[in-house]
Amino acid sequence: MTEKKRPAKERLRSGFTTGACAAAAARAAALGLVHGEIPASVETLLPNGQRVNFTVYESELREGTARAVVIKDAGDDPDCTHGAHMTVEVSVLPYQIDQVQLRGGIGVGVVTQPGLGLAVGGPAINPVPRKNIETNIREAGASLLEANGLLVIVSVPGGEDMAKKTLNARLGILGGISILGTTGIVKPYSTSAFRASVVQGIQVAANQGHNTVVLTTGGRTEKFTMQELPHLAESCFIQMGDFLRYALDAAKRCQLEQVVIGGMVGKLTKMAQGETITHANRAEVDTGLLADIAQELNVGVELCDAIRQNQTARFASEQMQALGLSEPFHRRLAERVVGTLIPRYPNTFRLTVLVCDFDGKKIAEASSS
């Protein structure tokens, strides 16, 4: 049986991340400084290697400084940042040869707690978009950087109000939104149509005669699992987004023999605590669960308390890595995921959980019997 294509008018429309839009605005502003005119549209390099044209909605050029605005289009994914005016100002830093400095302006959150992989006190601009913004700046402003540096300030007017609809404050990100995106593309994970596409993908794998599906939360974990399981057909790999329950229910209905979940510490913690819809706004990470695992590994009471009081799973992961306990810590977390999910699907499928770090490298795994 072959997969039926959805009519074009029913297909979900992808959008762009805040990071991609900021990179586009940054590139446009840098081109303005080089050529004396800010373009009305700009071809931008995304983190996934694609080049995409963005419209520049507003611009301003004055001596040594250029400002450009790109409006975020989230596609068919309902997102509080849809329509955000991603604003970037690029200024020349005389004599600071080849230096690119990135700062957060109004509406971009400030990191106030460890555990996010970002400097405390710095802007909440995640590592991938940070690198992508700099890459676009260096491409567009190469001639300027031969003799000067460039200061890049990312702002999001209204970002503080947008952030109230997220869990940023609980994560210690204050005053605005985070600049996010590992590929530059927003896939519409939050819609009912996407949930249906997850189920359909599992049905297609089963109809093609495969007895295994690999469920991942996004592009980075999918790439990781594909590297770990190269013998499986591409159709076996399903980006389920946050919809674990729908995916597992479909695997049960299709009578699949093996389910593999690939994930990182944050989503896996939510699965271990029993959340089967793992969207950031649906539930907080139970860092107490992570503290309990650390305690099982004879980690000191003071650090266990710090893990329990922190709002992020990443903090616990980083602390365990520093102690040389990364593998046993993440293996026990994977075992918790198995122990939580298998009783809900008894005598159904064998479950394996693969854990990777934030660079997509394997840390640990666990399986049901």
Average predicted local confidence, pLDDT:
91
How far apart are the termini? 32 Å
What's the domain count?
2
Morphology? globular
The strands making up the biggest β-sheet line up spatially as 4-5-6-10-7
Account of the 3D structure:
The chain has two domains: 172 residues, CbiD-like (2-Layer Sandwich), CATH 3.30.2110.10; 176 residues, no CATH class. It has 369 residues and is an alpha/beta fold. It is built from twelve helices and 18 strands. Helix 6 links the parallel strand 14 and strand 15. 35% of the residues lie in helices and 23% in strands.
Briefly characterize the structure.
This protein is an alpha/beta fold and 369 residues long. The protein is built from twelve helices and 18 strands.
Features:
single chain, 5-stranded mixed beta sheet, 369 residues, globular, 2 domains, alpha/beta, CbiD-like
List the helices and strands and how they pair.
Elements: E1 15-16, H1 18-35, E2 41-45, E3 51-55, E4 58-62, E5 65-71, E6 85-94, E7 100-104, E8 107-108, E9 110-111, H2 127-140, H3 142-145, E10 148-155, H4 159-163, E11 173-174, E12 176-177, E13 185-186, H5 192-207, E14 212-216, H6 219-228, E15 237-239, H7 244-253, E16 258-263, H8 265-272, H9 287-296, H10 301-309, H11 313-322, H12 326-341, E17 350-356, E18 362-367
Parallel strand pairs: 7-10, 8-12, 14-15, 14-16, 16-17
Antiparallel strand pairs: 1-13, 2-3, 4-5, 5-6, 6-10, 9-11, 17-18
Helix pairs in contact: 1-2, 5-7, 8-12, 9-10, 11-12
